[in-house]
Amino acid sequence: MLELLVYLLCASILVSGVLAVCLQNTLPAMISGGLAGLFAAVCYVLLGAPDVAMTEASIGSGLSVLIFLYAIRRTSGAKE
User: Fold this and answer.
1) Taking the CB of residue 66, how many other CB atoms lie within 10 A of it?
2) What is the number of domains present in the chain?
3) What is the pLDDT of residues 5-39, one digit of tens each?
């Protein structure tokens, strides 16, 4: 059962990554990339690496998404 859940999470990581690359709008693409990091963090917890999962959740899907949101917000006003 655990193995099936890990495979499902790995497929979710791949789908989120492909969506992040294929989406035209930057905001949904960035959110999809953050979801890939979140799915990876859950996968790390299931595989028995809670320290890696905490790092991935805080930096990979938390801090980097906030930095990208800030950058998108700051640069979107430059077009006008």
Assistant:
1) 11
2) 1
3) 999 999 999 999 999 999 998 889 999 999 999 99
Domain that holds residue 16: 2-79
Q: The tokens 């890939």 sit on which residue?
A: 36
What is the Cβ-side half-sphere exposure of residue 3, based on CA atoms within 13 angstroms?
A: 0
pLDDT in tens, 35-71: 999 999 999 999 999 999 999 999 988 899 899 889 8
* Counts of helices then strands in the chain (DSSP H, E): 4, 0
Helix, strand, or coil here: 65? helix
For residue 33 the two structure tokens come to 């990339």
Nearest to 42 by CA among 57, 22, 62: 57
**pTM, to two decimals:** 0.83
